[in-house]
Design goal:
Phosphoribosyl-aminoimidazole Synthetase, Chain A, domain 2, globular, homodimer, seven-stranded mixed β-sheet, alpha+beta, 60s Ribosomal Protein L30, Chain: A, 8 helices, four-stranded mixed β-sheet
Chain lengths: ~325, ~325
């Protein structure tokens, strides 16, 4: 089995071979050195983002770190209202990492970038000694462009707005956790990792007046709603019965004492829109493969300020807060 | 002593506190979520680049990983002929990392970004378990703009061109290696890590007809010249006596059996220009603090194709090739 050696990160012959044999064919690298030039961008404001991916294990039901590293950054741009166009990819690889696994990850990145319509045009590889990393870590940074008239910000949220969720919750976190711990759930849970830029483009074609979109990754739906409540100064109320929780996620959470509202998602978005736009937008979202089970899950009120409330099925009200520590580390 | 916990990477309250207390004040973060919007860019082509930094140790004579993570990416843009404008920063931190060290690194990044005139506008933090990383790894990606008329490419190199080196070689690699191994050299060697965008802007003001610039980091001057010979299809000849090697670097290399031509630099550039432009450009470079010891070190000929030749002080000729493996791992 071919393994990554320290020399693969040296700048010398081994590194050039690695780039020539694996990285250059996988991506649209415009330069093996220094920086890459973009084609002229479409009219609009430019958005920039970055994320590092340290998920453990690297391969999990429904995805892998390669797929995740493209979708995560594409989704950050997409929920900002931008059309993702270009990515960079930085790899930190542990000495002894199997080159066959690297090839599998790169193939996954290539296929996902093509599916998203983005180009990976600049990269970097570093190798650290055995025991100084955990297999492979990937950073991607992304450039996208916002069309004029798109304005995605929590400051746009108004009392009376509706909260839309694009699909069922908790699948990514549970799938990674199950794989990590060698647990099998029945029914099995697959990660929801999926690029959202097709969905967001479709949504913004329906109405540019989407007030805010955000993808509830680390910390789950609860944390994202709490951030939005905090940043808007308003109260977000959601209804337990309206939130789709897949049976496998529900079962796993009951067994392990986890709350699905805090479990990470990687192909899900929350949108907040004016009441008048909610039903047409929901109908449009449901036409898209990434949001067949989209639902209106709640609404915005003026008070209590900066709060997230959950109306339970039995008529109670629960205050939703951020988690203090960590439910599931290294989920993305 | 305050230490990084796994919960600092969770997306929850601890992570928000970390961002609020340390990352947000250090940078020009435009959004704590998703992506950041750039101000309208100046006219020109847009360049994009990325690098991850895994240097060990994190603090070394003349610099630290924070300084390096800004300079390295700024320099990649600068030697492409671009004016660096925006950076992203992605942190992968090992559980148990001292927050005091994180503060020191962030302070270094802030000061360097200000000195370079770049804004760090988007970031990300992941935390991995103790033993799954080595303190801290940093990725930065950078966006810059190239003025019209600037065309930096090895394809521009022509027979007769002169090769200019901006200063003395080998200081970064030797300083890191000495610190890592607890060796003290007399005279001591400080890293040359320094932002080159001021120098490159000054050079391009003197003449836009710089054929190529490149910063000889990993693999040193030898590897960079070999890349340029390969990419241009021409022969690059350099003269041993014209290459400034600081006494500390020379002593360390003699002691350890290393070749200074292969040692990493982080504040150095190689420029190749038409013979007629070489002396005026050299004079302009010497006015700049980053290139007081700049020198013409060689010239380009048609053949032997794709070769780098070193004319030694005693009249011999040595063929310079890329290193196969690794002289000094984790130098940047």
């Amino acid at each position: 089995m071919e393994l990554i050696q320290l020399g693969h990160g040296s700048g010398g012959r081994l590194m050039h071979q690695l780039i020539r044999d694996y990285f250059a064919p996988a991506f649209d690298m415009r330069s093996l050195n220094d920086s890459a030039l973009l084609d002229p961008l479409p009219q609009g404001r430019i958005a920039l983002t970055t994320d590092s991916y340290v998920v453990s294990p690297l391969f999990f039901p429904g995805g892998d770190i390669g797929l995740l590293s493209i979708c995560g950054t594409v989704n950050d741009l997409a929920v900002s209202g931008a059309k993702p166009l270009y990515l960079t990819a930085g790899f930190i690889i542990e000495e002894g990492f199997p080159i066959s696994d690297l090839r599998r990850i790169l193939a996954s990145m290539t296929a996902t970038a093509q599916a998203c319509g983005v180009k990976v045009i600049a990269g970097d590889t570093k190798v650290v000694e055995r025991g100084k990393a955990d297999g492979i870590f990937i950073n991607t940074a992304g450039v996208g462009v916002l069309e004029d008239g798109v304005d995605i910000s929590p400051l746009n949220i108004r009392p009376g707005d509706k909260i839309i969720l694009s699909g069922p919750i908790g699948r990514h976190g549970i799938s990674v956790m199950a794989e990590r711990n060698g647990i099998t759930f029945d029914p099995p849970v697959q990660s929801d990792v999926f690029p959202l830029n097709g969905l967001t483009a479709h949504m913004l074609k329906t109405t540019k007046k989407v007030h805010v979109m955000r993808d509830p990754t680390r910390g789950g739906v609860a944390t994202t709603l709490k951030e939005l409540a905090h940043e808007s100064g308003l109260c977000l109320t959601i209804h337990e019965g309206m939130i789709p929780v897949p049976p496998g996620v529900r079962g796993a959470c009951e067994l392990l004492g986890l709350d699905p509202l805090y479990i990470a998602n990687e192909g899900l978005l929350i949108a907040i829109v004016d009441q008048a736009d909610a039903e047409p937008l929901l109908a449009a979202m449901k036409e898209h493969q990434a949001a067949g089970q989209a639902a209106i899950i709640g609404e915005v009120t003026e008070s209590p300020e900066r709060m997230v409330l959950l109306k339970t099925d039995i008529g109670g009200i629960r205050i939703i807060d951020m988690l203090s520590g960590d439910q599931l580390p290294r989920i993305c």
